[in-house]
Design goal:
The chain is mainly alpha-helical and 61 residues long. 95% of the residues lie in helices and 0% in strands. The protein has one domain.
Length: 61
């Protein structure tokens, strides 16, 4: 919703730039999608490593 409101403001201020943004937004989203997937995978691996490192502390508590 926020993106749409920003686009509407941009459309009122400068409609050619708003149309270019409308065309480029899906392309940029597709380019950044693999980076999001890598970020999720790295977050999962770091959580797993943290769980393994802190496991002895949890056992002794």
């Amino acid at each position: 919703m926020f993106t749409f409101l920003v686009w509407c403001i941009l459309f009122v201020l400068s409609w050619p730039i708003a149309l270019v943004a409308l065309v480029l937004y899906p392309i940029i989203w597709l380019i950044l999608l693999p980076l999001r997937i890598v970020g999720i995978a790295v977050g999962g691996v770091l959580s797993l490593v943290w769980g393994i490192v802190t496991l002895p502390l949890r056992i002794f508590r």
